[in-house]
Every structure is written in structure tokens, then in C-alpha cells.
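Would you mind writing out the residues of a protein together with its fold in C-alpha cell form for me to study?
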Amino acid sequence: MANTPSNMIPLGTKAPDFSLLDTISGSVLTLNKLKGAKGTVIMFICNHCPFVIHINAQLVKIANSYIEKGIQFIAISSNDEINYPQDGPDKMKIHAKTEHYPFPYLYDETQQVAKAYDAACTPDLYLFDSDLKLIYRGQLDDSRPGNNIPVTGHDLRHALDCLIENKENTSPQKPSIGCNIKWKQ
């Protein structure tokens, strides 16, 4: 397992727009159509990464809790499907259904969206406000495979609560750690 940290892009950064295939519905979806009324969580994940597998259930639980509060969740996989066929669109659709994803699972075939967000690892999490300005980026919580810390989603939940309650998030924002995005050769 590689331990790649996320790039901590500046808070206030505007979310780059995109049009990507939703592997669940087969439709092409855009950020502007998907964005949430209160905020939007964009998650760079994939099917096979042990760091993502470790937090999948908590991602689903958090999404199910906050979607009803006006937060949209969007999962994106940017991995090279040629060298990592388990992360291709057909397998993504199966994975999303098996994990009961309540959010779209988009495929970034050209990897241009991952580059636009300066995404580095899976999972890489970004929270944008209703104006699509970045207010949180980094880890879900301190849990990692094998460190025996429970997966709670504390850091992301705190950022979401601050957004919903219109409070400033003064907690330190820590980079996520995970597998590097599998870039095309």
C-alpha cells in the first residue's frame, strides 16, 4: 500500500466544473446540475484501494445522513482502467450497487478532472459551499487500515456541521492518506 497524501489546495478555491459519465445511471452528469443547495462533497475514490474499502461504509452512512440536509455527494474514480481494470466503469457500477452508494459514481476517463482538482490519492475529499468555494479538504478522520482507530468520519462530519450551522471551521485540516491515483502512462 502506498501512503500518498492529498494536496491541500487553498481554501476558497472554486470547484472546477465537469461533465462525466455516471456509471450507475449511464448518464453524463455535470457539477452544476449535481451541486447541493447547502454544499457539495466531491470524493476521489476507486474500487480496489484498501484505504477506500476501509471507509466505504462510513462514506455511505455520512452521505445518507447529510443528503437530506442539502449536501450533495459525488464520487469520482480517475484511475487508469487499462492497467487497473477492476476500476473500470462496468466494475464501478457493480461496486456502487454492492456498497449501496446513495450518490453518483462518475468515471473520469481522461483524468482531466482529477488534475483540475489536484487530486493525488484515494480517498481525496473536498467540501464546497453553496457557491462551490472550497471550505474543507483532506481526510475523513484519523482511521487508516491497520491503525485500530475506529472509522467515524469525524473530520468531514465536523466540516459539514460547521457549514450547515454557518460556523467557521477552526479545526486543523489534515491531508488524507491513501493510494495514489493510478495515472495513465
Notes: The mean pLDDT is 96. DSSP finds five helices and ten strands in the chain.
